[in-house]
Write a structure and sequence with these properties.
It is built from four helices and no strands. The longest helix has 12 residues. The chain is globular, with a radius of gyration of 21 Å. The termini are far apart. About 5% of the residues are buried.
Length: about 80
């Protein structure tokens, strides 16, 4: 009866990152048109209150849509680059 050594990395997941990506399903209850999405993307530098007045959506709807479109993540990345 023979024994063989199995490398330890075979017991780990393929993705061995420290913080694995977590997918989250974001579904909006409000229907946005393409023009409204474009306006939100082009004017994402404005405050949420100003956007709520101009787009006729609630502040929560706009924050949710910015999260879906990835504008919050983009803003954080740009802020990190700005301070380097």
């Amino acid at each position: 009866m023979g024994f063989f050594v199995v490398p330890a990395y075979l017991f780990y997941n393929v993705d061995m990152s420290k913080y694995p990506l977590k997918s989250k399903l974001l579904i909006s209850s409000v229907i946005w048109s393409t023009e409204q999405d474009c306006y939100l993307i082009e004017n994402s530098h404005l405050t949420v209150d100003v956007l709520a007045l101009q787009l006729n959506f609630t502040v929560d709807d706009i924050q949710e849509r910015k999260e879906i479109l990835g504008l919050n993540r983009r803003n954080r990345q740009l802020n990190r680059l700005k301070w380097r």
